[in-house]
Write a structure and sequence with these properties.
Elements: H1 3-16, H2 19-23, E1 26-33, E2 41-43, H3 44-55, E3 65-73, E4 77-87, E5 93-105, E6 108-115, H4 118-126
Parallel strand pairs: 1-6
Antiparallel strand pairs: 1-2, 3-4, 4-5, 5-6
């Protein structure tokens, strides 16, 4: 399977909050390299748990929908650009733009680094 396909399967699992399915695409030592404003780098499972239990809980029952707009890959690296849309439990619409750099070792994710509007994310988290 090519690395872009693996990256997209990983993101699909993240979107659905399926930590086990997301981790199936990762090395056991994989890292979620969040920016400092979101707590900095941490083990992948911890980062996925934070997304599911601290951020995704702000969304209504329809959850977050990710729409991929662009992918780019090299030998062991994939960049995925996507838009995330949802409705907050407060009824407000949520739209954010993301770019995720994903480094691979073989066919497993070694680390993932998301870039987004962290101020918007922090505002969403503080409204819960």
């Amino acid at each position: 399977m090519d690395l872009i396909a693996i990256a997209l399967l990983f993101l699909k699992a993240v979107e659905s909050g399926d930590i086990e399915a997301a981790m199936a695409h990762c090395k056991p030592t994989a890292e979620f390299a969040f920016l400092p404003s979101l707590g900095g780098p941490q083990p992948m499972a911890s980062g996925l748990d934070m997304l599911k239990n601290q951020i995704f809980t702000a969304f209504d029952e329809d959850g977050l929908t990710l729409t991929v707009t662009r992918t780019l890959s090299s030998q062991d690296f994939v960049v995925v650009e996507f838009t995330g849309t949802a409705t907050l439990k407060t009824g407000k619409p949520y739209t954010n733009f993301y770019s995720m750099n994903i480094a691979f070792e073989g066919d497993k994710i070694q680390w993932a680094r998301p870039f987004t509007d962290t101020l918007l994310l922090n505002n969403v988290m503080s409204e819960q």
